[in-house]
Amino acid sequence: MFCALALFSLISTTAAQAPQIVEAAPAAAQPAPLPNLQEVAEGDPIPTKNLLQVFRDGGLLMYPIGLCSFILLVFVFERAISLRRGRVIPRPFVKRFIEQVKDGRIDQDQALALCEENQSPVAEVFAAAVKKWGRSCVEVEQAILDSGERVTSRLRQYLRLFNGISTISPLLGLLGTVLGMISAFNAIAANGEAASQRELLASGISQALLTTAAGLTVALPALIAYLFFSGRVDRLIIEIDAHSQEVVNAIASDGWKEKKKSPSRRASRSTAKAA
User: Fold this and answer.
1) pLDDT computed for residue 195 by the predictor
2) What is the pLDDT of residue 236?
3) Cα torsion for 211, 217, 222, 223, to the nearest 10°?
């Protein structure tokens, strides 16, 4: 009995609410009207920011990050010009110098004059070897090593600067992130309005993200430049060492020299073989 009454009351309640649901359903099912494209086009333009505005929004730490990027750009161009293979190891000079030394067409004074006239890093190493002309291989190689260390030091110039920028820039971005979050939470604590708190939090997070992105944007090219130029310097040093060894063999008193067979010896050998 009680179950029947409860079922009846449930059915009557559902029947009473059904018209409202039916009437509300079409209204909810109706799609929202599409905006007029002409009105959108003629409306207010989408707000955008240029690079200067983004730089200002990042806070004070954007200035040292910008300085790091400027220094990086300047010295990347400088190293790209200074470490050209044609400037460090001019192939025409190296080929002509080694051929003349091997053939004995120039003496010590002429070889030294050629090196001083060229003034390239490889010519500096050759000049140190020529000054030990006629000495033992050990003395000539030691002179090459001493000169090679000085040349290597000049070729590796400013590479530490790239490494330093790649390390400092992310730290500056991280510091800007921390300062932005601190200022945002301090402003939220001082302001009790909920709407203002959301705006202040969004502003602080925006500043934090801008400084982090700027620091990483500078650090990545700096690291790539450091690895690229370090590899180029290593390849140039290996090539200079290979050419220097040829000079050692040509001018050292006990250096390995390719013996040229005289025509009389070759004729005698051929006669002996024929016999």
Assistant:
1) 55
2) 94
3) 100
CA–CA separation, 71 vs 188, rounded Å?
A: 38
pLDDT of residue 233: 94
Answer positive or negative: Cα dihedral of 184, 188, 194, 196. Answer: negative
Mean pLDDT by 10 residues, the chain (275 residues): 38 40 41 49 51 65 89 94 92 91 87 89 92 88 91 91 92 86 74 62 73 90 94 94 90 64 42 42
CB 164 within 8 A of CB 271: no
What is the rounded CA–CA span in Å between residue 200 and residue 190?
11
Q: How far apart are CA 94 and CA 242, in angstroms?
A: 11
Whole-angstrom distance, CA of residue 243 vs CA of residue 258:
16
- Reduce the secondary structure of 133-201 to three states and give it as a string: CCCCHHHHHHHHHHHHHHHHHHHCCCHHHHHHHHHHHHHHHHHHHHHHHHHHHHHHHHCCCHHHHHHHH
Q: Are 83 and 155 in contact (CB under 8 A)?
A: yes
Closest to 135 in 3D by CA, of 257, 256, 252, 249: 252
The pLDDT score that the predictor gives to residue 23 is: 38
- The structure tokens listed for 113 are 């004059």
Q: Which tokens go with 78?
A: 């400088």
User: What is the distance between the alpha carbons of residues 102 and 108, in angstroms, rounded to a whole number?
Assistant: 12
Q: Which of 134, 126, 141 is nearest to 95 (CA)?
A: 126
pLDDT at residue 104, rounded to an integer: 84
